[in-house]
Design brief:
Elements: E1 2-6, H1 19-31, E2 36-39, H2 52-65, E3 72-75, E4 78-80, H3 84-94, E5 104-108, H4 115-127, E6 131-135, H5 141-145, H6 148-155, E7 159-163, H7 176-185, E8 190-192, H8 205-216, H9 218-233
Helix pairs in contact: 4-6, 8-9
Length: 242
């Protein structure tokens, strides 16, 4: 598996509190078949001295600290989109940190309320040369009511990442219903862990993956957990499924 959404970098956001905790998570990941991870700290964590230069240095040190674990690490960010119009204006002014130096950008757009807003966000980002990936839409209030926003986002040319754990067919919880609805319709381009620490981790990843394969088929799971993520790492355009 190639994990495109993970909060492994300790003492940066709401992820691990220590290097030791990060190491536990990475060992769990490799034991469950993860080969590559994009580290995606929350954009809201960066203010004052925590700027992009600081993050680059911090990530380089983290790579050195975890070199004994056979996982390739890449840097990215989970960008909070409070208002999509302000977000694209900020891109024009400041640029944006993408996933593994690709054209793909992970966006957490919890306040999207309509298909029209979803389409406009995708349009504006593609106009600037980026491919937006909508992070964990199963948590969005609007999507829990109606998954049509996700359909609109994908139809406009965007991509969708759903949390692996939420798609466990035997699972439950407040995000499970929306995640399963998206899984049934295959309105998903990536499954990722969104690891946040010892509470949300990779311990049972292989078991959950197997149950999802039984539910929707190995070919689909291969596509959203290996093939599409690999294209992000290689900065190749993903052939859109409808």
């Amino acid at each position: 598996m190639i994990d495109i959404h993970s909060h492994l970098l300790y003492r940066v956001d709401d992820g691990p509190l220590s290097l030791e905790e990060s190491l536990v998570l990475m060992k769990q990941a490799t034991e469950n078949g993860v080969t590559d991870i994009i580290v995606t700290p929350h954009s809201w964590a960066f203010a004052g001295e925590k700027n992009m230069d600081w993050l680059q240095d911090r990530f380089a040190r983290f790579q050195e600290e975890t070199r004994a674990i056979p996982i390739q690490l890449y840097l990215g960010m989970e960008h909070a989109v409070e208002n999509y119009r302000r977000f694209v204006r900020r891109i024009d002014k400041e640029g944006i940190l993408t996933l593994a130096n690709s054209r793909y950008v992970l966006v957490e757009a919890m306040r999207l309320e309509s298909g029209e807003e979803a389409e406009e966000l995708v349009y504006e980002m593609k106009l600037r040369g980026y491919f937006p990936i909508l992070a964990h839409p199963e948590r969005m209030g609007s999507v829990k009511k109606d998954i049509s926003i996700v359909r609109a986002f994908r139809k406009a040319g965007g991509f969708v990442q759903v949390t692996l754990e939420a798609c466990d067919p035997t699972g439950s919880g407040m995000f499970h219903k929306a995640a399963i609805a998206l899984l049934k319709e295959k309105q998903i381009d990536f499954l990722a862990t969104d690891t946040h620490g010892l509470i949300r981790n990779c311990r049972n990843l292989a078991e959950v993956k197997k149950r999802i394969e039984q539910y929707v088929g190995k070919e689909f799971v291969q596509q959203v957990m290996i093939e599409n993520p690999k294209k992000v790492l290689m900065d190749q355009e993903i052939k859109k499924r409808r």
